[in-house]
Amino acid sequence: MIYVSRQEHFNAAHKLYNPAWTEERNKEVFGPCANTNWHGHNYDLIVTVKGQPDPETGFVIDLKQLSTIIRQHVVDQVDHKNLNLDVPFMKDQLASTENLVVAFWQILAREIPRISSAQLHCIKLYETPRNFVEYYGE
Ligand SMILES: Nc1nc2c(c(=O)[nH]1)N=C([C@H](O)[C@H](O)COP(=O)(O)OP(=O)(O)OP(=O)(O)O)CN2
């Protein structure tokens, strides 16, 4: 089995805020990440698919096509957006890296089979250079 990855990038604003809690509780749990007027991140997104190389192309997946799918269905939906306000698939969800990566999985697990027989294996999302989340669809 060969694992093939594509990295993409986007910027987005958000705040970590649970509407069921008081302002004080949100500040206590999320600290500056609950700042009322938002804050931003430069996210790095790494999508890994797995499969066997096609005997005619040598590709598990055409990375140009994978990039197009990720950009169209994920990056363009979140880039330069407010994740709490502007992104329909994050509506009523806490805009954490964990919840984002699960939402991205749901989208890409639907889209990748339309272009390739390769299987989605892992989505890794860096919120900062030091904080990142991996999801394997389990
Ligand atoms: N499990 C999670 N924990 C946190 C998340 C998250 O999505 N999942 N998100 C945040 C905040 O959004 C926050 O903005 C992260 O920033 P910060 O803690 O400042 O991260 P840095 O890597 O830049 O900070 P250093 O402490 O300087 O390394 C918080 N937690």
TrEMBL record:
Cited Pfam families: PTPS
Group of enzyme by EC: lyase
Enzyme Commission number(s) of this protein: 4.1.2.50
Keyword Zinc: yes
Keyword Lyase included in the entry's annotation: yes
UniProt cross-references to InterPro entries, sorted A to Z: 6-PTP_synth/QueD (IPR007115), 6-PTP_synth/QueD_sf (IPR038418)
Endpoints of the signal sequence: none
Keywords: Lyase, Metal-binding, Zinc
Names of required cofactors: Zn(2+)
Biochemical pathway: Purine metabolism; 7-cyano-7-deazaguanine biosynthesis
Gene Ontology MF terms in the entry: 6-carboxytetrahydropterin synthase activity; metal ion binding
Reactions performed catalytically: 7,8-dihydroneopterin 3'-triphosphate + H2O = 6-carboxy-5,6,7,8-tetrahydropterin + triphosphate + acetaldehyde + 2 H(+)
Gene3D superfamilies, alphabetized: 6-pyruvoyl tetrahydropterin synthase/QueD
Family: Belongs to the PTPS family. QueD subfamily.
The protein, known as: 6-carboxy-5,6,7,8-tetrahydropterin synthase
